[in-house]
Amino acid sequence: MSEHTTYQPTNGVEKWLDDRLPVVRFAKEHLMDFPTPKNLNYWWTFGAILAVMLVVQIVTGIVLAMHYSPHVSLAFDSVEHIRRDVNGGRIIQGVHAVGASMFFAAVYIHIGRNLYFGSYKAPREILYIIGVLIFVLMMATAFMGYVLPWGQMSFWAATVITNIFSAIPVLGDPVLQLLRGGFSVDNATLNRFFSLHYLLPFVIAALVALHIWALHVPGNNNPIGVEVKSSRDTVSFHPYYTMKDLFAIVVFFIPFAWFVFFAPDILGHPDNYVMANSQVTPAHIVPEWYFLPFYAILRAIDFNILFIDSKLGGVIFFGGSIVVLFFLPWLDRSPVRSGSFRPMFKWFYWIFIANFVLLAYLGAAPAEGIYVILAKISTAYYFAYFLIILPLLSRIETPLPLPVSISDSVLGKAHS
Amino acid sequence: MNIKKSIIAAALLALSMAVPAAAQEGGHATPEIQKRTWTFSGIFGTYDEHQLQRGFQVFREVCAGCHSARLLAFRNLAEPGGPGFSEAQVKALAAEYTIADPSAENGERPGVAADRWPSPFASEQEARDANGGSLPPDLSVMAKARGTTQPFPWWILNYFTAYQEGGPDYIHALLNGYHEPPEGVEIPEGKYYNEYFPGHAIGMAPPLADGSVTYEEGENGSVPQTLEQYSTDVSAFLMWMADPHMASRKETGFRVIMFLLLFAGLMWATKNRLWRGVEH
Amino acid sequence: MTVANQADLAKHETTEGTRRDFLYVATGAVGAVAVAGIAWPLINQLNPDASTLALATIEYDVSAVEEGQTVTIKWRGLPVFVRHRTAAEIEEARAVPLGDLKDPETDEQRTREGHEQWLIMVANCTHLGCVPTGEAGDFDGWFCPCHGSHYDTAGRIRKGPAPKNLVVPPYEFVSDALVQIG
Q1: Which residue in C119, C115, C116, C128 sits closest to C156, CA to CA?
Q2: Which residues, numbered 264 to 283 in chain A, qualify as contacts with chain B under a Cβ-Cβ cut-off of 8 Å?
Q3: Which residue in A15, A75, A403, C72 could disulfide with A9, CB within 3.0 to 4.6 Å?
Q4: pLDDT tens for residues B164-194?
């Protein structure tokens, strides 16, 4: 890490601390003086928004854990107890439940930004990979968290998703029993999900620290994808981006508050207000909206591929849809980072986004009629984008000419 | 930017044209349930105290005979934002009910305000035996455990109107949905045809009819004593039972959003002021 | 340090100075309100919830308690003695000179007018919390077996390590037979 700060301790106490544990120096270097490209647009505020959402979820989660009981006969009623009797419980629980959705909305926008502006490209591959790991852990955390209220959707989502592991050849059933702690999803499963749901956010927090460290080595990417050349290209993180990020966070809180106070159950499913019943399956088992695209991919493989049966095939594509993200820096080899200068890429990118939204829609639709073929086409495009289109584009695309530097591009805009 | 917009617009148009056939299943389509206007609809909605009192009367005299409401405490009936009973009324009401309590003499005692609504049956099996094998579900959160669905793209509007009344809409439709089965539809013995119940064969006999409940004269006496009125009132009561803090939640929400708008405005000005000297 | 260049800063310093400061102060104040508004519910949720508060006050029908009998009931999670004292016990309690008491309190202070036969006390020894045994000890009251505290017929500490008399909770008789505690 290069020295960007001219920090001098101002008094004896500060110097004493700085000699032993330079936390103030560290904060100044990385959170205040850090040179940040001056042309970042609002898509870049979602990193800070995500950090705030992680804190919100951890704080509300710890508070909820003070009142929640993770036993199958008590869980559902303990959540209702929080909503009805605990001071402010209705709001704290609402913030946590809606917060999960807001967290995923922000992460999808953040990932969308990365994909468009090439933030995953060298030298930021590790930064990006840590990000994908955070995304995977977020999905695991959210999945286990949804089981905790022990409603019908909680129980059946747990049943369906843990069943995925039975698709593993040979070891499938023993692994399934190991994960569930029994022959079916029951108290043992609920308790371990509670323990892990409490644990994983702190693992995510550690990864976030690594994520920011990995970011601060090369510094931020920017909308034109041209690296910082001199101090004319940057401003200090504080106060320019601290205040811009804070503004974005406040604006982000407005739809968040809308949901929490006016429509707290609209993102959920009414069936989760029915207590879990292992003898009765709900008419439509639907995951939360943020899992829908991957759920659609899982269901799209309803045919056998050679010796792989459709169930295992679905699981492979489901896992593959995440694994392929890890390889993106090596699939897209274009030397140009930003989509702004890649006219062919832009088309395919926006089709990818529309396709991802379509996959989400298909994940909630019944697996019949036109939806079946649509799901297959959408899944095909999802994989084709990463495995065929991006590698090809790297070779055949002619990018637009890049500006010489950030400050040149910014001046150009100011005078045009 | 134009490329992006035209692709998204095309995708949305295509989606809306492929009107989902999801609502039509097999031969008998469950008709779409109309959205009703409730006093508690929308961001400024609140419960009507008198409606909740009438609804409670219907619940107590009709529903509570078979349905439990284990999350309702007697004291909730005196809390603000609800039916508005006084502490004394709640105490007297609770004392009318017998609560199982192992530490009491004979294992039971009269209720107090802190107690929860007692179940009409001692066990699940007893409930099934008394109801032809069906278990009458607990009603505590029934108004949130049911909902209505609108086809795409109309459900998008719900996010902007903050539509959360799908439960009462469904319950009202169900209570008014008992009819003679249409031609060729066979309903098994012990079940009843209901237009809105999934599968159309419901184990509950029509619980309400005109004149079932006598509303007392006074402020509550000026409403018609019809099935339509009873079903509306009890649906509102069930919504309150499922969401007793709704009124204060919406009120706080209004203040929070106004505050956030103010704060966002100030942050916008602050950010712009800070960035004024910088080309960006 | 990379900031806006010096010329720009100088321009800002002059007339716009006070307006800029007012904006920052206003924003900071609103931000502080936001922090307080978020912090308070997170702290207040630690306070007893509505279901606990509902049991903060209980009513007990004393008509079943015979003279000379002590009943132990539960109030706020604590054991509470309800004793129907005999006339002899009341007399004995009133005859004790205040100077003899480690924690001086008259019998009248520990009972309600018109209901002097009723002695209602939290059944935790004021030493370290054990439940004393009734009709035991050297003073015809209670004896705590844990460390040997003796209480008299008004529940006052007479001998042993306990510092205070057995605690009398707030209570009142809403009728002759019904006492409201808490």
Answers
A1: C119
A2: 264-266, 270-271, 273-274, 283
A3: A15
A4: 999 999 999 999 999 999 998 899 998 999 9
Look at the pTM and tell me if it is higher than 0.80.
Answer: yes
The label of the residue with tokens 């599968």 reads B199
A35-281 CATH fold = Cytochrome Bc1 Complex; Chain C (1.20.810)
**Cβ contact (<8 Å) for A87 and C51?**
no
φ and ψ at residue A151, rounded to 5 degrees: -90, -175
Residue with tokens 């019949």: A368
**What was the ipTM of the complex prediction?**
0.93
- The whole-angstrom separation of Cα C72 and Cα B217 is 47
Residue type, C110: R
Question: Which residues are CB-contacts of B146 (< 8 A; sequence separation ≥ 6)?
Answer: A270, B166, B167, B170, B171
C9-61 tens-digit pLDDT: 555 555 566 777 899 999 999 999 999 999 999 999 999 999 999 999 999 99
Residue A84 predicted with pLDDT over 70: yes
Three-state secondary-structure class, residue B65: helix
* A353-to-A7, A115, A359 alpha-carbon distances in Å: 44, 10, 10
Rounded to the nearest 10 degrees, the angle between the axes of helix B49-61 and helix B227-242 is 100
Provide the pLDDT for residue A416. 45
**Torsions phi, psi for A7 (to 5 deg):** -65, 130
The DSSP symbol for C175 reads S
Average pLDDT over residues C124-151: 94
Q: Which neighbouring-strand residues pair with B166?
A: none
Contact C137, C143 (CB under 8 A): yes
Which residue, among A28, A62, A86, A232, would best test binding to C if mutated, counting the most C CBs under 10 Å from its CB? A86
- Give the pLDDT mean for A217-227: 96
Instruction: Check CB contact under 8 Å for A87 and C4.
Output: no
Which two tokens mark A69?
Answer: 């009981």
Query: How much is the pLDDT for A7?
Result: 84
Torsion, CA A79, CA A82, CA A84, CA A87, rounded to 10: -170
- Whether C49 has its CB under 8 Å from any CB of chain A: the answer is yes
Mutation site for A-interface testing, chosen from B256, B259, B262 by largest number of A Cβ within 10 Å: B256
Distance of alpha carbon A271 from alpha carbon A160, whole angstroms:
16
Specify whether the CB–CB gap between A166 and A172 falls below 8 A: yes
Q: Which pair of tokens denotes residue B20?
A: 């989902």
* Distance between first and last Cα of chain B: 20
For chain B positions 99-158, those within 8 Å of chain C (CB to CB) are 103, 112-114
Whether C96 shows a pLDDT value over 80: the answer reads yes
Annotation says C84 is catalytic? no
pLDDT digits (tens, 9 = 90+) for A360-381: 999 999 888 999 999 999 999 9
Q: A346 CB contacts (<8 Å, ≥6 apart)? A: A339, B3, B4
By 3-state DSSP, what share of chain A in percent is helix, strand and coil, each rounded to 5? 70, 0, 30
Q: What confidence score (pLDDT) does residue B219 get?
A: 62
Q: Which two tokens stand for residue C120?
A: 């209602």
CB of C35 within 8 Å of any CB in chain A?
Answer: no
* Residue B237, both tokens: 């009561």
